Amino acid sequence: MGSENGKKRGVGRRAVLIGGGVAVVGTGVLAREELARAWWRLPWMEKPRVDGELDYRAAAWTAAHQANSRRADRPDDYRIDRVVIHVVQGSYATALKVFRNPLHEAATHYVVGKDGRVAQMVRELDVAYHAGNRDMNERSIGIEHEGFVDRPQDFTKAMYEASARLTADICRRYGIPVDREHIIEHAEVEGTDHTDPGPHWDWDRYMELVRRERAKLPA
After folding, report:
1. CA dist., res. 18 & res. 217, Å (int)
2. Prediction pTM value
3. Residues β-bridged to residue 185
């Protein structure tokens, strides 16, 4: 998990000093990009939302606190092209509890339990604060897993299979390639100090399961 603390948009002091005119133009471009992404926030444009609506039908809805995510309109404003795998360093109940805490400043879209339960806590169209990097938060869906990185016994058959079905469904809906460039571990996110899912997460097994589940779904 990680708060919304990645790269900020804007023009740096050095750019302003070197080329004021260019910097002003650049600022205008950035402003237009932000406006293009934010049009739907206007009161008469925002898409209707239904409390508890699921993006993945096998999940159960348990809402994270709104302070732990940011309303968006993905993939219309931000392309979704990554899935980030996390391990919570605790129980399934712990993950749900901390993501409901507004002081935690982080949440993932989904939590997967050792028994195969899946909870959705943030809508996929919204930006969850899970990766510790703004750009990655905006382009990814985060999946938390019950357990501890130093306890391989926590990564059960039911968990791997449930998580693989979820990831395969996400990849289908957003056209994400099923490979390790696009399905990544939290530790691989630029700027993070996290190590999850750790050395005991069986990536070969997991990716084979995701590929198998993806093959069962429509193109």
Report:
1. 53
2. 0.83
3. 85
